[in-house]
Amino acid sequence: MSRRQRQAMVERKGSRLSLVRQCSLLDISRGSVYYRPTPARAGDLDLMDRQYMKTPFYGSRRMKVWLRGQGQPVGRDRTRRLMRLAGLEAVYRRPN
Hints:
By secondary structure, the chain is mostly helical. It is about 55% helix and about 0% strand.
């Protein structure tokens, strides 16, 4: 049984077993039950897409610097995640 299927089996309310016990029995972490991902802001992705069209050779480090110059408080990890979500990848000559 996959992890997602086991997570779907957890009953948040109305169960006689606590969440801790359910997670223990299903062999999943409690953090995965409580975690709710936050969606990316559309403005950030749109801004990155427009810049990517102008400079497709920008990687996550350079894109971070450019976004900070535009007044966006981002770090490299967030920039990498946003680029991955948008399907953006730096275009440059790779070794071999």
